[in-house]
């Protein structure tokens, strides 16, 4: 009878070991390459939304998408095209093409200064509300306009060319007449 208890305990411990190893192997390790060529592996948490990473991604994309000079916009869009779906890419390139002559003639530039980032939908695709001030410069004049944008961002598999693992699929200028604080 003692042998039966020992066998039962051994089976339960082996089962717990198998379950633990299965759970540990389901999470991919995060490999970091140091400047000296050393490779180190960091432990990862479960694959939930990393809000800090998403906000950093939004800051990066918004700095290229919402701020420009008359000469820089095409290159900026080229630099972030791997992070944009066709809808926002086509929209900004169409807008630039339609206004290119006016932008160059009046030396128009725009800088969007982010004041607040809020994730309003925390499931894929995510919705991010971006509040800030759009500074428009034209022929030596400046205009400051409070703006709110809603960005739709889809989580995708990270790749070497898109290490963030996010893709901006839409950007909408939020209507200020609907209770928006100015």
Counting H and I runs of at least 4 residues, what is the number of helices?
4
Count of distinct strands: 6
Q: Secondary-structure element sequence? A: HEEHHHEEEE
Overall geometric form: elongated
- Name the strands of the widest sheet in spatial order: 3-4-5-6
Distance between the termini: 78 Å
**Overall pLDDT confidence:** 79
Helix-strand category: alpha+beta
Whole-number radius of gyration? 24 Å
What percent of the residues sit in helical stretches (DSSP H or I)?
A: 25-40%
Which percent range describes the beta-strand content? Answer: 25-35%
User: What is the multimeric organization of the chains shown?
Assistant: single chain
Q: Main sheet, how many strands, which sense, barrel?
A: 4 strands, antiparallel
pLDDT < 50 stretches? 177-182
What can you tell me about this protein's structure?
This protein is an alpha+beta fold. 37% of the residues lie in helices and 31% in strands. It has helices spanning 2-26, 51-65, 73-80, 86-105; strands spanning 30-33, 39-42, 109-121, 126-138, 141-155, 166-173. The N and C termini lie far apart (78 Å).
Short synopsis of the structure:
The chain has helices at residues 2-26, 51-65, 73-80, 86-105, and strands at residues 30-33, 39-42, 109-121, 126-138, 141-155, 166-173. The protein is of the alpha+beta class and 182 residues long.
């Amino acid at each position: 009878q003692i042998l039966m208890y020992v066998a039962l305990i051994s089976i339960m411990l082996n089962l717990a070991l198998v379950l633990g190893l299965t759970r540990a192997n389901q999470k991919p390790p995060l490999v970091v390459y140091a400047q000296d060529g050393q490779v180190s592996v960091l432990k990862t948490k479960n694959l939930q939304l990393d809000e800090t990473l998403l906000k950093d991604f939004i800051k990066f994309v918004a700095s290229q998408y919402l701020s420009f000079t008359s000469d820089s916009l095409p290159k900026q869009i080229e630099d972030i095209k791997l992070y944009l779906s066709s809808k926002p890419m086509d929209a900004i390139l169409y807008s630039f093409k339609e206004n290119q002559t006016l932008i160059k003639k009046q030396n128009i530039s725009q800088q969007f200064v982010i004041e607040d980032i809020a994730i309003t939908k925390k499931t894929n695709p995510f919705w991010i509300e971006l509040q800030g001030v759009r500074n428009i410069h034209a022929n030596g004049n400046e205009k400051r306009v409070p703006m709110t944008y809603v960005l739709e961002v889809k989580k995708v598999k990270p790749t070497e060319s898109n290490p963030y693992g996010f893709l901006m699929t839409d950007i909408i200028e939020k209507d200020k007449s609907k209770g928006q604080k100015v």
